[in-house]
Predict the 3D structure of the following.
Amino acid sequence: MNVTLVFPPCNRELNSSHLPFVERNIGVLPPLSLLYPAATLEEAGHRVSIVDGNAERLGSQQLIQRVRKTKPDLLGFTLSTFTYHRSLEWIRMLKAALGVTVVAGGRHVWYYPRETIERSEVDIAVRAEADHTIVSLAEAIERNTSLQRVEGIMYKRGSRIRQTPLCQPVSNLDSLPFPSRHLLPNDKYYTFISARRNFTTMITVRGCPFHCIFCGVGNSAVRMRSAEKVVAEILRAYELGVRELEVYDDSFTLNRKRALDICARLRKEKLDLDWAIHTRVDLVDRSMLGALSGAGCRRVNYGIESGNKHVLRTLKKGTSLSAVRQAVHATRRVGMDVFGYFVVGAPGETPETVQETMQLSLELPIDYAQFTKIVAHPYTELYDMVLQEKRHDFWQDYIVNGKEAEIPLAGTNLTNKEVDQLVLKAYRKFYFRPGYLLRRLTRLRSAHELVKYCRAAVASIGS
Ligand code: B12
């Protein structure tokens, strides 16, 4: 059957953790979540198309035309809580124009399957990992057999909602085909700091064993692709013209042996490829960093979060400031860039603790910093704190009644507005240092990078 997966353009949301100028300049990334169901569907012999309306900057009529051309029997969307209502608007529009069955998946649906299926826009909601579910679903629809045998979904039968048992998460990631990047306009993707095209992203680990209070992914079963398969996936992307790659794993180096094995294999391949990883400061050491650098890894992105040890502890990050310092210095020593993620507005946060965070970002040899307002995502410990303090379920209200309200901060007297101002201040302090500007200019890898940097700087001045 013809399955078309759509990633509609979703503009800034009220509760975005980014300031508007950051959001506008952060880049355009591939809809990775859709590439997995696309891959298993293709493997099972279905014809799959992906329309990335976000990357192609499609307006509503263009999006309808593009999707219509693919002659879909089934339309699929990935939903995130933050873009939920905007995504529903797009689905409504496409459904009205094409009259095709709609299946929705993604993290938001895991958390709110009933609320999602209760919407008239969605016919089938996938409540968990969908790699196999989507194939059984497509088969059932094609053969017109009962959906009751498809694991992990909710669907409508007349006015009733039916639910099937949850399927187990995929235990062996190596058994999955590689994400279908060949269906994407790969030359359209970039980030604020990427320097080469084609650029793409990758996930090699599912699940995370850590317990950060602001993240909904933690405390879940960890599964990894083997080193051999990771490198094979990279080679496949390379064949598609990918020359820069960012691995979005929460902790790429979680399994030391695997990470070293990936580096050793990549080193042998001698690819003309720049790549970067995300990991924790307590999961690297000199030899790991040396291996990464030797294999062409150019940057390590660390979740540093806060410059105050009490805030760090409250966040249950499980790292220390000394580990932060060690990791950052060691990364720079082997010649890789450092990207630091910082949050502002955590429980226990005061103007003084934010000052400590800014100070840390300035004193360490960090190449790029991202400061975000900490927004309590649904089904996180941080959101439990909001619920306890405010006694009102803001997300439920937004999801069911469409009531857009700012999610309040928990455990701090700072307001959302004050946090936004502090975030802007942190950005300006970090990026407008003369010494920093000079260093960046000397390390620029392309004129394109300079243009992007200038555009973001001008936008931040206007914020
Ligand atoms: C890469 C990434 C992105 C990329 C790509 C987004 C995408 N949806 O493809 C970009 C940068 C664009 C992005 C943007 C955002 N993201 Co994001 N992102 C991720 C990240 C790091 C990896 C996603 C991924 O590929 N995972 C691996 C795949 C295999 O898992 P999966 O996404 O769950 O998909 C599986 C199933 O859910 C299902 N599935 C998913 N979608 C669909 C659709 C259909 C039709 C079907 C059948 C199945 C299906 O099939 C997949 C295979 O089993 C996750 C964190 C994480 N570790 O998962 C956050 C995450 C998904 N993002 C998150 C958020 C908040 C955002 C933003 C709102 C951030 C912002 N402020 O702008 C935006 C929303 C944009 C949007 N329209 O979706 C949250 C979502 C929380 C929530 N409650 O919704 C997460 C969980 C991060 C977190 N720690 O909380 N993101």
Remarks:
- Residues 5, 10, 16-18, 29, 31-34, 36-37, 76-78, 80-83, 103-108, 111, 126, 129-131, 134, 201, 203, 215-217, 248, 250, 377-378 surround cobalamin (CB under 6 Å).
